[in-house]
Design goal:
With about 120 residues, the chain is of the alpha+beta class. It is about 35% helix and about 30% strand. A 5-stranded antiparallel sheet has the order 3-2-1-5-4, with helices on one face. The longest helix is centred in the middle third of the chain and has 16 residues. It is elongated, with a radius of gyration of 24 Å. The relative contact order is 0.15. Belongs to the eukaryotic ribosomal protein P1/P2 family. Keywords: Ribonucleoprotein, Ribosomal protein. InterPro entries: Ribosomal_P1/P2, RPP3.
């Protein structure tokens, strides 16, 4: 599994990204953040080889962001988390349904129980 973290900055209408803490100095630039994310994903795939890809892009300020591309790793946590539930033999599903039913049966609190009313 390879993790690529990029520091992204906007200057003069162009977005530039530079890899943070990596072996290779990967860089890309583009006019839009969407296009820049695609370029960064392709750069990471080229550097790491093939595999499942997960990417994220988070604006920190209106002119700076952090982008991360993960290559490899077997498909992410969501599919790994759902696999044990599917192989449990169905024993957990009825228990989960019973818990939902119990929560529905709980009495809803009214304003009178709190000692005040919304329209007082």
């Amino acid at each position: 599994m390879a993790v690529f973290t990029f520091i992204v900055k906007q200057s003069g209408g162009s977005w530039t990204a530079k890899q943070h803490g990596g072996e290779a100095d990967l860089e890309a630039s583009s006019a839009s953040t969407w296009e820049l994310q695609r370029k960064l994903t392709n750069l990471a795939l080229t550097a790491a080889g093939s595999g499942a890809v997960s990417s994220s892009f988070s604006l920190i300020t209106p002119t700076s962001a952090v982008a991360q591309v993960i290559v490899g790793g077997g498909g992410g946590g969501f599919s790994a988390g759902s696999a044990p539930a599917a192989s449990s033999g169905g024993g957990a599903a009825p228990a989960a349904e019973e818990k939902k039913e119990e929560k529905v049966e709980e009495k809803e609190e009214s304003d009178d129980d709190m000692g005040f009313s919304l329209f007082d």
